[in-house]
Amino acid sequence: MAGDITTIARPYAEAVFTRARESGRLDTWADTLATLSAIAADPEMAEQIGNPNVPSERLRDAILEIAGEEPGSEVGNLVSLLAVNNRLATLPEIARLFEALRTRDQGVCQIQVLSAFELEEDARRDLTTALEKRLGAEVEMTVETDPSLIGGVHVRIGDLVIDGSVRGKLRKLATELQF
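and the corresponding structure tokens:
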């Protein structure tokens, strides 16, 4: 399901990023999207967004009022577009993707690493160095532990996935053997 929302949110995030970069307002848009994301993620607002009986215009107006934005502004237009297309629930993902684009534009790649075991500092440093060399960019790496990987690591760099886990290799073997 997370992949579905990312697929839906990506074109919006890319469009907002392009517009923000053109207008020189990357930081302003990042702050605004963080605010909109927090509003949409609020449990009470999320409940209203998920309620098909609440008119999209009412949701749009509520979000813009809370955010302090005017309808007709660029932010107002984005929220209106999302409301009309029943996409307000994607605001947190749009904000996350926008931030990833902004970080990448600054020459930094955000990387998520899942490891079967806790990575020691030397292993983290070696992995960071190898990824910086491969990507040709500075790397910001977050590492989480997932024992279900059995062994190895699972690396996610945006849409690129490098699965060096034992679980991933077993799945690949099962697919090849048609299990």
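(Above: one complete record from the training split.) The radius of gyration is 20 Å.
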